[in-house]
Amino acid sequence: MDSLVVRSSECFVMKPLILHSAIRLAVELFLSTLLIVTLASFCAFSPVLSQGDPAFEWHLLYLKIRDSQISREEALARLKALEPLLKDRYLKSWNRKSEDRLTFPLRGYGPTAIGGNGGSGYQPKGYDFFDGNRHKGHPGHDIFIRDKNQDSLDDGTGKPVEVSSVSSGMVVSLNLNWESSSPIRGGNYIWVFDPMKSRYYYYAHLNEIQVKVGDIVSRRDSLGTVGRTGIKAHPKSSPTHLHFVVHESIGGYPKPINPYQELVKAERK
Description:
Elements: H1 2-45, H2 54-66, H3 72-93, E1 140-144, E2 162-164, E3 169-174, E4 188-194, E5 199-209, E6 216-217, E7 222-226, E8 241-250, E9 253-257, H4 260-264
Helix pairs in contact: 2-3
């Protein structure tokens, strides 16, 4: 009788222990799965674990420049190191010469859509690439679309206005899903690097974006559509437009140049 009582007591004690072990095993399994998912996400977005993709590294570097999280000296040194890698990757993927003539960046539009008088909208004084989102000046051109009701659609066609790549190159950075609470001046934007000309092309205030970082684009390829994103393009006081900027890399330092004459002579799509 005593042995039966002992065995019964042992069973009573063991049941909670088994239950506790099962719960602990389930928790450990959940944490292990969570760790694997986290590491996988980190590998997908980390510049170290992205197999040295220079386009993605440029993108991450630009975010730091844009948000004033890196010194000018360090940023310039990294840009100088990245540009040869971008060129090498570009040539391996797209062995073509750069075209001399640009394509006008808005489908169905031409030079008359450029703001100002004879390109007077280009005002680079005080601008520095490394000032990021806090930069001064207006080192580019605003190209306006017909959009009186500000719905980002062409008043004549009722359709979105396509933004075309003015030259061949590689997408090295972009911003998606801009919201009105965001302080980013360019809203939804795209940076394309043409390593054959050592030029950076910047397209800002887009609505939709149809490319991703690392894509190789040809002249006339669609990049997205014109929108009203960005702190200065979003208010009703601003007509719907594309902000277009060209930088020339001088020793790795992106310096703005005036593309007005090239836009006047650009091929129209």
